[in-house]
Amino acid sequence: MAIDKRSKQEEIVVTKVKKLKLNNFRNYLTLDLKLPNQHNIIVITGKNGSGKTNILEAISLLSPGKGIRGCKLSDINNEGAVNSCWYVESEIAGFYGHERIETWLDPEAIKDGKNKRYVKVNDQSIKAQAELTKLLTISWITPQMDQLFISGTSARRNFLDRIVQNFEPSHTKHLMAYEHSMKERARLLKEKNYDINWLSALENNMAELAIPIAASRVQAVEYIEEIMDEINHPFPKARMLVTGEVESRMHKVPAVQLEDEFREILQKNRSLDAATGRTNVGIHKSDLLVYYKNKNLQADKCSTGEQKSLLLSIFLAEVFAQIKWRAQTPILLLDEVLAHLDESRRDTLCQIIKDTKAQAWITGTESETFIPIKNDSQFFKIENSHLISV
Prior knowledge:
Blueprint: E1 13-14, E2 16-25, E3 28-34, E4 41-45, H1 52-60, E5 87-94, E6 97-105, H2 107-111, E7 117-121, E8 124-125, E9 138-141, H3 153-165, H4 171-190, H5 196-230, E10 238-243, H6 255-268, H7 270-276, E11 287-292, E12 297-298, H8 304-326, E13 328-329, E14 331-335, H9 343-356, E15 360-364, E16 377-383, E17 386-389
Parallel strand pairs: 1-13, 4-15, 4-16, 9-14, 14-15
Antiparallel strand pairs: 2-3, 2-5, 5-6, 6-7, 7-8, 10-11, 11-12, 16-17
């Protein structure tokens, strides 16, 4: 396992969305946006429900996965569109120059029961969405994430894995392969007379994949914590810990031994897993624990305000870690984040965003919220599903 780490001596590349075109996407039948080079911060204001988050969601779909909402892909379709599905087209300026990225949902695929999206880069279809991470990374923070620390384990694990994929493009591919082998193993265990050789092969695949998955998780957290100790801001510093059968032993035993141990666990648990209908131990059960470092208090025991600040602290550390290790800025999506901060912290966050030099898309209901970055931003407002430059 080797997290994508470019030379620290390279000049930092600022990745930008230069053009964005939407068809049948949420409340937008059409949208065609071209951005000038003048400012890296794009502020979008409008009433609640006007479609601000929808634009951020479209941008988030230029990365692997289901975007900032994580919803069923067919739910993105414009309700007024007949026999048509959503389509996103973008021109990106980044590490490899200008790239044209298209992604869409195929109506014929939905008829066949396939709720998947398709992706093209420079008119060439790509089979694995993870390839997008080689072109650009996108980091976001939304109001829905405020519940992260009091949510279930899977929410925190998904949050962590999304961060990891920004450092290690193959991480998502490894996760998908692990899940496929795990499902096949569960199916076999339901059968009374299964092929023991095939079962052993699936368990071997799971053990081999678990090591790079766990290692990438642990290493990404170490990168973020390293940066968190270096940067200075008023948001509370977080201590992060990945818990799990494999992750907790990454620094204690050699990878080969750890792989053998996990393989043995899977073999010993065959009867239990067959009885319960699930795989009871593995990297799919891992969790991300977060602590308010100075108070040594787990995040779920902190106040609502402290939890929001811890989340912001992790977000900022991840952004600066990407800049340091990848020599490339991520695209930042901040949905209604400033409105929940006091004036001092709002001003500080605005300054930090400027300091990243990253392209940042920020939404809010009131333009007055963005006074600290008024002279450094391109402003748009949404009226009747139209984006108007201010």
